[in-house]
Design a protein that fits this description.
Blueprint (H helix, E strand, L loop, with lengths): L2 H11 L9 H10 L5 H9 L7 E4 L6 H11 L4 E5 L6 H14 L2 E5 L3 H7 L5 H4 L1 H17 L4 E3 L16 E3 L8 E3 L7 H10 L66
Parallel strand pairs: 1-2, 1-4, 2-3, 4-6
Antiparallel strand pairs: 5-6
The protein binds iron/sulfur cluster (SF4).
């Protein structure tokens, strides 16, 4: 066989394992949509597919209805991934079902692996002594499995939500692994006034726990009320250094997803 023929064979056989997007791609997309309104930018993502195969990750929390309404108005078939940890408030599950009905969402519930759950959290109390481990089983791993088919995820994160989220870009590289997926934050530059106005304009239902003093809502064992004037996310994992559930933080060299304290997060 000539050296030319073997070079051709190698080129055909090569599997592209490189990252999907680079930092330069994120910069380019941020520039491309600079000055565009949120719906225009979402049309680029959902209809023109500038970020490939995408899904929304939603907690059906206090402000989730805004992003979900926007998504449904652009393309209601967009997959909405919900991490069904088994530890949500019943109010959150009812709210999820209400929004599915009202907005016609395509929600996919991601559940923890039953065998892993039985092995590592038989009592169901891991959250009380190892919340990182509990989030890993119930959120990080199920999401990682679903992400295999995706090039990007859309989140509802906003820059004003906490000190760790200030200056959030619309497009960024997801550093939780080396796949180079995009993380898209359409509401990065929204503030609480714009969110409230959108709720009113579209007559969106509020999460029932907001009125009870929960401005940021996650799993019930790890969410507490927040006093007026406190950081809205301070009620999450109160008493722990943990600020995020680990699905938007870089993996550690040993392959785990342990959270660096205070690291920029998720939902
Ligand atoms: S937020 Fe709490 S209950 Fe939910 S997965 Fe994380 S540690 Fe477990």
């Amino acid at each position: 066989m000539s050296s030319g023929a073997s070079a051709t064979a190698r080129a055909v056989d090569r599997i592209d394992t490189g990252p999907r997007f680079s930092e330069a791609d994120a910069v380019r997309l941020n520039r491309l949509y600079r000055g565009s309104d949120t719906r225009e930018m979402l049309a680029g993502v959902l209809k023109d597919r500038v970020a490939g195969d995408v899904a929304v990750v939603s907690s059906f929390g206090a402000e989730s209805a805004v992003l979900l309404h926007l998504i449904a108005s652009v393309d209601p078939t967009t997959p909405v991934l919900f991490l069904e940890t088994g530890k949500h408030f019943p109010e959150t599950l009812a709210y999820r079902d209400l929004l599915i009905e009202r907005l016609g969402l395509n929600v996919i519930n991601l559940t923890p692996d039953a065998e892993l759950l039985a092995k590592r959290d038989e009592s169901g109390l891991r959250w009380s002594y190892d919340p990182d481990g509990c989030c890993d089983i119930c959120k990080v791993q199920p999401l990682a499995k679903a992400m295999v088919a995706l090039d990007a995820t859309i989140t509802g994160r906003k820059g004003f939500q906490s000190a760790t989220r200030a200056g959030l870009p619309r497009f960024e590289i997801d550093k939780t692994d080396s796949q180079g997926r995009l993380k898209i934050n359409p509401l990065a530059d929204w503030n609480s006034e714009i969110v409230a106005a959108y709720f009113a304009e579209h007559d969106l239902p509020a999460h029932p726990l907001v009125a009870e003093g929960y401005p940021s809502i996650g799993c019930s064992p790890c969410t507490s009320k927040v006093a007026p004037g406190e950081d809205p996310r301070s009620g999450r994992w109160r008493g722990w250094e943990k600020t995020e559930c680990g699905i938007h933080v870089p993996g550690q060299p040993d392959g785990t997803s342990e959270l660096p304290p205070g690291f920029d997060p998720v939902f």
